[in-house]
Specification:
Blueprint: H1 3-10, H2 15-28, H3 37-59, H4 61-67, H5 80-101, H6 111-130, H7 137-154, H8 162-183, H9 200-212, H10 217-236, H11 241-263, H12 267-284
Helix pairs in contact: 2-3, 2-7, 2-11, 2-12, 3-5, 3-6, 5-6, 6-7, 7-8, 8-9, 8-11, 9-10, 9-11, 10-11, 11-12
Length: about 290
C-alpha cells in the first residue's frame, strides 16, 4: 500500500489529538512528563486510532460508493479486504503496545489497562460496523476516546483519581457533540441542535478548574472561542460550514486537553496540548481530517 494512501485512510492529521488525550490520562494518573512510558502509550493509542480509521473506510465502503466515491476503496485504489487486514492488525498491535507500556515492577501488564484496551478495540469495531443507523453512535465514539484516556491512566495507576474520571467525562461530552455533527457531514447540514448542548459541559468544568487553577483560564478562552466559531458555522449552514465545524472541533479536543492539564497544574503539558491543536490544523491541510 502506498504511503499517501495509508495516510489518507488513517486520517493521520488527527493523531496529535490522540497524543494529547494520552497526556491527560497518564499525567492525571500520576505520571511525570518525562516518564519513559509516555512514548509507548502514544504509539499504542495511535495504532488503535489509525486501525480504527482503516476499518471505518472498510465498513463504510458501500456508503462511500454513493456519497464519497473519491475515498480510496470506492475509487479502486485499494481492496476492502486489504484494508480490513491492516485495520485489525493495527488494533492487535495497539493492544500489545499498551500491555507492554503498562508493565509493572513484576514485569506483568496492568490488567486494568489491558481491559481498557480490549474494550477500546471492541468499541472501535462496533462503532465502525454500526454507526450509520445507530442513534447511540455518538456515545460509542465518545467512549472510544474515554477509553484512550482511561487506558493511559491505568497504565500508570491501579486506582484512577477523581480528576481523571472528571476529565474523561469532559472528553466524552465533547466527543458526543462532535460525532453528532460529523454524522451529518455528508449532508452538509445539521438537524436538531440539542445534542450540541453537551459541548457546554466541558466549558462549565473548565470554569470550575480555572477558579481553582487560574492558568487553566487561558486555554479555556481558546476552547470557548473554538466552540463559538464552530457553532456559528453550524447556525449559518452555508456550503462547507459543517465540514469546517467538524475539523475545528476535532482539533479542539487538544485544547480541551490543555484546559484539563492546566487545571491539574501540568502547565508544560498544557502547552504541548495547545501545540497539538495547531499541529492538527496544519496536518488537516495536508491530509483530510474526515
Amino acid at each position: 500500500m502506498k504511503l499517501r494512501l495509508a495516510l489518507q485512510l488513517g486520517r493521520i492529521s488527527n493523531l496529535p489529538t490522540v497524543w494529547s488525550n494520552v497526556l491527560v490520562g497518564a499525567l492525571l494518573g500520576g505520571a511525570a512528563l518525562g516518564d519513559a512510558r509516555l512514548p509507548w502509550l502514544m504509539a499504542a493509542m495511535s495504532l488503535f486510532y489509525v486501525g480504527g480509521m482503516f476499518l471505518n473506510d472498510a465498513f463504510d465502503r458501500d456508503f462511500d460508493v454513493r456519497h464519497r466515491p473519491e475515498r480510496p476503496i470506492p475509487s479502486g485504489q485499494v481492496r476492502a479486504g486489504e484494508v480490513f487486514v491492516y485495520g485489525f492488525g493495527m488494533l492487535a498491535l495497539g493492544l500489545a503496545g499498551l500491555a507492554w507500556a503498562s508493565r509493572g515492577a513484576d514485569g506483568l501488564p496492568a490488567w486494568r489497562a489491558v481491559a481498557a484496551g480490549t474494550a477500546l478495540a471492541a468499541a472501535i469495531v462496533f462503532y465502525d460496523a454500526h454507526h450509520k443507523d445507530n442513534p447511540l453512535s455518538p456515545l460509542v465514539m465518545g467512549l472510544c476516546r474515554v477509553l484512550v484516556v482511561l487506558g493511559a491512566g491505568y497504565a500508570i495507576t491501579d486506582a484512577a483519581p477523581a480528576p481523571l474520571w472528571l476529565a474523561a467525562a469532559a472528553v466524552l461530552a465533547h466527543l458526543i457533540g462532535l460525532t453528532y455533527i460529523a454524522k451529518q457531514e455528508h449532508l452538509d447540514r445539521v438537524g436538531a441542535l440539542w445534542p450540541l448542548g453537551l459541548l457546554a459541559l466541558p466549558v462549565l468544568y473548565g470554569l470550575a478548574l480555572a477558579l481553582a487553577a487560574p492558568p487553566a483560564a487561558m486555554p479555556l478562552v481558546l476552547y470557548a472561542g473554538l466552540l463559538a466559531y464552530a457553532l456559528t458555522r453550524l447556525h449559518r449552514r452555508a456550503r462547507g460550514d459543517v465540514p469546517r465545524a467538524v475539523v475545528t472541533l476535532i482539533a479542539g479536543m487538544s485544547v480541551l486537553d490543555a484546559v484539563l492539564l492546566a487545571g491539574a497544574g501540568q502547565l508544560i503539558a498544557a502547552l504541548l496540548a495547545v501545540a497539538a491543536f495547531w499541529l492538527t490544523l496544519a496536518l488537516q491541510r495536508w491530509v483530510a481530517g474526515t
